[in-house]
Design brief:
The complex is a heterodimer of chains A (378) and B (135).
Chain A lengths: L11 H16 L8 E5 L3 H5 L4 H8 L6 E4 L5 H14 L5 E8 L6 H9 L14 H16 L3 H15 L13 H6 L2 E3 L2 E2 L9 E8 L1 H7 L5 E10 L14 H14 L8 E3 L5 H10 L30 H5 L6 H14 L13 E8 L4 E9 L2
Parallel strand pairs in A: 1-2, 1-3, 8-9
Antiparallel strand pairs in A: 3-6, 4-5, 7-10, 9-10
Chain B lengths: L10 H9 L4 E4 L5 E2 L15 E4 L4 E9 L12 E8 L2 E7 L18 E8 L6 E7 L1
Parallel strand pairs in B: 6-8
Antiparallel strand pairs in B: 1-2, 1-3, 4-5, 4-7, 5-6, 7-8
The chains are: A alpha/beta (378), B mainly beta (135).
């Protein structure tokens, strides 16, 4: 992945090209090996007036092959990874380039807010004035009503994820914050202050997925494999869900990924989850089966998901501190998890025994979700 | 309604019905409620959806105060968005700020507040908006 941050002048195509170049270098492969491209991008039409960006991504990465843009809001590149995995598994391709990119900071806050809101139901939510942070605020306030908890619990999540990112050279925010900082920041949508929200970011991510046969023929020695993948869906509008405090799409994605990998929640050593807003991490931990419903709210405050905790979550800094260039996020989770597991991430030493990792990438208010399980195989 | 005046079938029909005092929802044979346009019950796949009168009042399930809005609501912020349950269907709408005239400010509206559905126009663009009025 590229460094995430503010680079308003850089186009998404350039960001993806940089990420692809790093993936080629990491794998020891060249563009000629790629047989198909799945490119995640959410708001290219809004931010760059650019649709049909699959072939453009292939051009940028030096590839002549079938190329498709995958759009599933914030889960776009998680879905791209999943499609690539399935292409390799079913024998349709031996080497697939997956990932994504997003350019966001060339937009004003209002324009970016409008772009992100297009992940909601345009008639029944957006026309009522629902913003993306607004929708998650509705979930947070309902969660507090049903299960308890409060702003301090959410603040602990932001503080933790910022702390995890302090040494990550690819993270947008490499600095610590305090609970006081979170609680006194300007309010975006009650109960969220500025530090409860992931930032607008620019960035790209890329990975090369190869078959075992291809790896053997080329003399590659990948140390990590995607051993399970799952995707779940749910009603688009928050008000149409069975519950506003659970995320069944993530539950379904996790169940499928666990079954695919032959593991369960207790086998997961580390996880990168979709903390677009602080409460989203709480909902993810419960959907993944790490906690019972209503019990993950205090996980960060109690230190359980800290780098020194029993089950470290978002060692990259998460979306909150690493940044959230929407279309690149799912691929970046896979990139960071790969490095964490094989030992060349800045935070790898703290989890040197970790062998099984999980990525959780959610779209909208989790109307779509992709979960991937990665394992050390070398 | 779109910028060029083209109606959004189903959505604008619902707003018309609210303004006419005859709001409705769509119910499937299983009893699930949905907002138009909807040809299938997404939970069951059933196709025989019928129009049913929306209950006169609903109950606020959650709310938030939006301080940072998109361009379409820039002049409206801050405003309050809520989700309310009306029988088998839920609606997202803005808590009617005029409700303050009745002594109900946004901060005073709690989960469980009884509301009725209405239609107002937003300040920024003059577009119709679903509103939830405390009763």
């Amino acid at each position: 992945m590229t460094a995430f941050g503010k680079s308003p002048e850089r186009t998404a195509r350039e960001l993806f090209a940089e990420a692809a170049g790093k993936a080629y270098d990491d794998a020891g492969l060249s563009p000629g090996a790629v047989e198909e491209v799945f490119y995640g991008n959410f708001m290219g039409q809004h931010a760059e007036q650019q649709g049909h960006s699959g072939p453009l991504a292939a051009d940028s990465a030096g590839v002549t092959a079938p190329a498709t843009r995958i759009e599933s809001a914030c889960a776009s590149s998680g879905a791209a990874v999943r499609l690539g995995v399935e292409r390799v598994r079913n024998g349709a391709a031996d080497c697939v380039l997956v990932g994504g990119a997003e350019r966001m900071t060339n937009l004003s806050t209002a324009e970016g807010t409008a772009g992100l809101a297009s992940a909601a139901d345009a008639l029944w939510e957006t026309k009522a004035g629902v913003t993306f942070p607004g929708a998650y605020s509705l979930m947070a306030n309902r969660y507090f009503h049903e299960h308890g908890g409060g702003r301090e619990d959410l603040a602990a999540i932001a503080v933790k994820n910022h702390r995890h990112a302090t040494e990550n050279p690819l993270a947008q925010f490499q600095r610590e914050i305090t609970v006081e900082d979170v609680l006194t920041a300007p309010t975006v949508c009650s109960p969220f202050g500025l530090y409860d929200c992931s930032p607008m970011s620019d960035g790209g991510s890329a990975a090369l997925l190869v078959s075992e046969e291809f790896a053997e023929e080329r003399g590659l020695d990948p140390e990590v494999a995607v051993t399970g993948t799952g995707q779940g869906g749910d009603r688009m509008a928050l008000h149409d869900r069975v519950s506003m405090t659970r995320t069944p799409a993530a539950e379904r994605a996790a169940a499928a990924a666990y079954d695919d990998a032959g593991v369960g929640p207790d086998d997961i050593d580390i996880a990168e989850v979709h903390d677009c807003f602080t409460v989203a991490e709480v909902l993810a931990l419960e959907a993944l089966g790490f906690y019972e419903t209503g019990e993950a709210i205090s996980a960060a405050a109690d230190g359980e998901t800290d780098i020194e905790g029993d089950r470290p979550v978002n060692l990259s800094g998460g979306l909150k501190a690493k940044g959230h260039p929407v279309g690149a996020t799912g691929g970046a989770q896979v990139s960071e998890m790969t490095k964490l597991l094989r030992g060349d991430h800045v935070n790898s030493d703290a989890v040197s025994d970790a062998e099984v990792g999980l990525t959780h990438n959610a779209g909208g208010t989790v109307a779509s979700c992709v979960v991937n399980v990665l394992e050390v195989v070398a | 309604m779109s910028d060029d005046g083209t109606r959004d079938a189903g959505y604008d029909d619902f707003l018309d019905a609210v303004e006419a005092g005859e709001p409705y929802y769509l119910e499937s044979p299983s009893g699930n409620g949905w907002l138009p346009p909807q040809q299938f019950d997404p939970e069951t796949g059933e196709r025989e959806l019928t129009e049913e009168p929306l209950p006169e009042t609903g109950e606020v399930l959650t709310k938030t105060v939006v301080n940072v809005a998109g361009p379409s609501f820039a002049d409206d912020a801050p405003y309050v968005v809520a989700v309310a349950q009306f029988g088998p269907v839920r609606l997202t709408g803005q808590l009617q700020v005029e409700g303050q005239k009745r002594g109900v400010g946004p901060e005073e509206v709690e989960v469980g507040q009884e509301v009725a559905v209405g239609v107002a126009r937003n300040e920024t663009e003059g577009e119709r908006v679903v509103v939830l009025e405390p009763v």
